[in-house]
Amino acid sequence: MGFRGDFSATLIGSFPGRDHRQAVSLILEHCPEVPCWPQLPAYPQEGMLVQFSRGLPGFDPQSLTLDPTTPDFESEMLAFYEEYMAVEEGRKSLSESLFAQKPEEVPGLFALLEALEDGKASPRAVKGQITGPFTLATGLKTPDGRAVFYDPNLRDLVVKLVAMRAAWQAERLAKIGVPVILFLDEPALAGFGSSTFVGVSREEVSAALSEVAEKVRAAGGLPGTHVCANTEWDLLVEAGLSVINFDAFDYLDRFLLYASTLGDYLRRGGLLAFGIVPTLKPEALKAAEAEGLSQRVGEALGRLSAESGVDEETVARASLITPSCGMGTLGEDLAQRALVLTKQVSQLLKERYGL
């Protein structure tokens, strides 16, 4: 699937407020080239660990646990894998499987589809998102408080659920008729390699991300990831992700430490999404100006080009602009400011590079 970033603006997903259609209208106004669907954490069912977890054997949405000791766990697990194999072998479509999501589970997705199918916008691409396998499998616990990721059998259930649900979302969004970008939201990767996740190997994390990425790609989408802090960025390259979204406001210098690896990634057609609008820092967001933010991105492109050997124009064509993280924790006024800044930074960089 051919798609160039060209400094188009897109978003991470979470929004303040309780009106999905209003959020979609704001998205289409400020990010018309690559709109995403909104998640509204004001609704508990749209929480990061709940929204995509229905269908997991032994899942309790109240305690956010997977309990393999429940009486029905073995039969639920058998049914889960039978459903998975039915889709894998072509005996059942994703849209007819338990991996398909209902409008009440992802109302923002269906609100965006409704708007786009009504011809209210003509995007270059469309973006979806799902909680990534590492974040979901480390956020969900067994009843003894241990992260599900540490249990290979439970981890496999989570990874396969995320992979198939991400593939369903990519298929559903592809009906719009433009390229689909699907972000795996992975805030927990900020803790990978630290004492937070002792005993978690790089190979295990890479395998989980790769399995999901492959399913998204097979469904016709571009698999990406969003990490709102620092991580081992070369791991995401190795996992086969096509878009890497990072906090360019606070972690740019650390990201550029991987310039050599990023150079190879860009030469293979990888995309970068610069999270330059500081939604994690309300005071910084209030003080930020589009000119200054766009200048920081331009300087970063120069550094990345010099250190990676990839010419600056190629990097520009491979770049998107986003906020540093979602906006669900912001007040509506600050969220509006973030939207305006994201759009303005995108426009300034497009003008600077003739895109």
Overview in brief:
This protein has 13 helices and 9 strands. The chain has helices spanning 20-30, 73-88, 107-117, 133-139, 152-174, 202-218, 233-238, 252-256, 259-267, 282-287, 290-308, 312-317, 332-353; strands spanning 8-9, 59-60, 65-66, 126-131, 180-185, 221-227, 243-247, 271-277, 319-323. α7 (233-238) links the parallel β6 and β7.
User: Which spans have pLDDT < 50 for at least 5 consecutive residues?
Assistant: none
Strand segment count: 9
SSE topology string = EHEEHHEHHEHEHEHHEHHHEH
- Between the first and last Cα atoms, what is the distance in angstroms? 20 Å
Give the CATH level 1 class. Alpha Beta
CATH topology description: TIM Barrel
Mean pLDDT: 97
Can you tell me about this structure?
The protein is α/β, with parallel strands linked by helices and 355 residues long. It has one domain: TIM Barrel. It has helices at residues 20-30, 73-88, 107-117, 133-139, 152-174, 202-218, 233-238, 252-256, 259-267, 282-287, 290-308, 312-317, 332-353; strands spanning 8-9, 59-60, 65-66, 126-131, 180-185, 221-227, 243-247, 271-277, 319-323. The strands form 2 sheets. Strands 1-9-8-7-6-5-4 form a 7-stranded parallel beta sheet. Strands 2-3 form a two-stranded antiparallel ribbon. Helix 6 links the parallel strand 5 (180-185) and strand 6. Helix 4 (133-139) packs across helix 5 and helix 11 crosses helix 13 (332-353). The chain is globular, with a radius of gyration of 19 Å.
